[in-house]
Amino acid sequence: MELLLIRHALPLRLSDPAGADPELTPEGEDQAKRLAAALADGRYGTVDTVVSSSSRRAVATASAAAAALAVEIELDDRLVEVSHGWTTYGIAHTYPDRATLLRDMNAGRLGDNTFDLDAFRARVVTGIESLVSEADRLVAVVCHGGVINAYLSHVIGAEKMFFAEPYYTSVSRVLALPDGYRQVLSINEIDHLR
């Protein structure tokens, strides 16, 4: 089977003492529509299932895809971002450069927040691996940049978990065979946005 790991569309940046869970920006809504059209047109194959993180930005992105594919969305809390529940969304955008951001994230921190790298990866890998079946199917997994990094770094055995910057609504493809074999087929496909 094949997994399409899809980063959600562009969200708003915000702070909320109850936990920042932003909606999509107008640009993000357009990205989600373009992704949905590409999935419905079969650009990546025939998608059988759409699974989404329960975060608003992922659900909004997945909803556009599911509507275009005429399927239901399956929500999975194991696919939420490392920053889930934090009071500010958009901390990564405050870093002076990508190298500094990745260094901090690979040390288990983002801004003033800290997280457990091993627990995050274990949660993500367990969630994504639960989708693998013996059936020859194609599953679209709408999630987050950190989630995609955690799973891809697991598949390739990378020393550092955070190494790529998935673009909004980018598609990264993984071949997942029932015998445990995993192969990264692509990272960060964005042709559907052109």
Automatic annotation (TrEMBL):
GO terms for molecular function: hydrolase activity. Its EC number is 3.1.3.-. It is an enzyme of class 3 (hydrolase). Pfam families: His_Phos_1. Keywords: Hydrolase. It comes from the Bacteria. SMART domains: PGAM. This is Histidine phosphatase family protein.
